[in-house]
Amino acid sequence: MKDKKIIVDEISTAKVSEISPGLIDFTPKKCLACGNKSKIVQRFFLLSQAPKMEGEHKKIKRILGEKYGLTYYGYLEGNKKVITTAKCPECDNEKMDWDY
Ligand SMILES: [Zn+2]
Question: In angstroms, what is the span from residue 41 Cα to ligand 1's centroid?
Fold first, then answer.
């Protein structure tokens, strides 16, 4: 089987509201590690193709880690081409209590 390359590119919030508006409301509420609620940095990324199989999530995680140093991401079932990540400014943790 051919290994299709997935391209991950960071996009702006304005772009997200154009292509996946529902994801804007999907926001990190609280850091699960330290409980911090302020200044959590949320970022959005566009994938060249929506992940269809479980293995593709592994690939995306690897690219996200290599390119941006991030590990966890969330997405909407309706549009898996746009993903979002969050990082706590206090402890660098990426696992959040999400509001959606
Ligand atoms: Zn934290």
Answer: 11
